[in-house]
Amino acid sequence: MTAVCALAAGPLLVGAVAQVTDLLRHGLQGYYGAPGWLNLYGSWTALLAPLAAALLISGKRRGTDLPCGVVTTDLAARASYG
User: Fold this and answer.
1) If residue 41 lies in a helix (H) or strand (E), which one and from where to where?
2) CA distances (Å), origin 67, targets 19, 34, 41
3) Contact present, 67 and 12 (Cβ < 8 Å)
4) Rg of the chain over CA atoms, in angstroms?
5) Which of 8, 14, 26, 29, CA to CA, is 20 to 30 A from 43?
6) Among candidate residues 70, 73, 77, 78, the one with its CA nearest the CA of residue 13
C-alpha cells in the first residue's frame, strides 16, 4: 500500500512545486483578473498539497481524505470561475 501511496503523492508534489513557484513569481495575486477568493484558494493549495502528499506517503487515513478534498475543491473552484 505504501508504494501506491507514494506513487499517488507524486502529482501532488509536482502541483505543489508549480503553485509555490507561481507564488514566488506573482505573489498572492497569481491569477490575473481572477476574483480574490480564487487567488486566496490558490495560495492555500500551495500549502495543503505538500501536506496532503506527506500524509499520503505516511499511510495515515487523513492522507487519503485531504488529497480528495484538495482535488474536489480545486475542481469546484475552477468550474465556478470559468
Assistant:
1) helix 36-58
2) 15, 24, 15
3) yes
4) 13
5) 8
6) 70
The residue assigned the cell 503553485 is 19
What is the grid cell recorded at 79? 468550474
The C-alpha angle with vertex 28 and arms to 21 and 13, in degrees rounded to 5, equals 35
Residue with cell 486566496: 40
Q: What angle do CA 3, 66, 30 make, to 5 degrees?
A: 110
The answer to whether 49 touches 23, Cβ cutoff 8 Å, is no
Confidence (pTM):
0.72
Model confidence pLDDT, tens digit, residues 6-62: 788 888 888 888 888 888 888 877 777 788 888 888 888 888 888 888 888 887 766
